[in-house]
Design the sequence.
């Protein structure tokens, strides 16, 4: 009999490491621009250190303030996985701290995205593992459940499935469906080249700005001297 709300799915389909690694160093903003700016996790989930984030999602849905299923996920996730925790945005209780992150790092987990609160931030800033969270509080977690592992979750306003590719930098996070990854890579690399060209034009004071006035005219803007 199904026990909805307290289930663990052990098997997920991860994209190839080669495809994931192609996103290394690509700015999140440029990736998002090529996804019509519709796949960015909400800005309330912020990085707590400067470690870039990249990897496939290993999802956890928890009761707010409870981390029993997150503890189980620490033992199930594979090296390179990103643990994505839907704690419903509640920041009344932290659901992760230093000891859990140290264990995750030993197991090769690549990072965390937590729509909830964390603690021990002073230590977490210096552990060399990417962590994004919605808040910080010293109040500790409960360990009663329920929760689910490797189900679709909502994190920062975006639905994330197990195996989705997550990319994070100082700007924030973007979520990529594996079936879109190859085409998106090419578009993002093309945009990067265009931006490098624009930077050179700015330095040489030759950046084409005529589009601004054209857009204003098209919108009927009135210019008053």
Sequence:
């Amino acid at each position: 009999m199904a026990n909805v709300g307290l289930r663990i799915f052990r098997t997920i389909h991860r994209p190839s490491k080669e495809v994931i690694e192609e996103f290394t160093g690509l700015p999140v903003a440029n990736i998002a621009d090529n996804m019509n700016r519709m796949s960015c996790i909400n800005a309330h989930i912020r990085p707590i250190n400067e470690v870039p984030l990249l990897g496939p999602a290993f999802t956890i849905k928890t009761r707010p303030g409870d981390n029993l299923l997150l503890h189980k996920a620490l033992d199930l996730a594979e090296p390179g996985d990103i643990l994505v925790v839907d704690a419903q945005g509640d920041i009344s209780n932290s659901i992760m701290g230093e000891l859990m992150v140290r264990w995750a790092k030993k197991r090769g987990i690549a990072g965390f995205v937590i729509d909830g609160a964390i603690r021990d931030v002073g230590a977490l800033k210096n552990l060399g593992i990417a962590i994004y969270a919605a808040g910080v509080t010293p109040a500790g977690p409960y360990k009663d459940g329920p929760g689910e592992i490797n189900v679709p979750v909502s994190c920062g306003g975006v639905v994330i499935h197990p195996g989705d590719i997550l990319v994070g930098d100082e700007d924030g996070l973007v979520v990529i469906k594996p079936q879109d990854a190859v085409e998106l890579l090419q578009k993002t690399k093309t945009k990067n080249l265009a931006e490098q060209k624009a930077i050179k034009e700015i330095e040489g004071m030759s950046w084409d700005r005529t589009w601004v006035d054209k857009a204003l005219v098209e919108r009927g803007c009135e210019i008053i001297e």
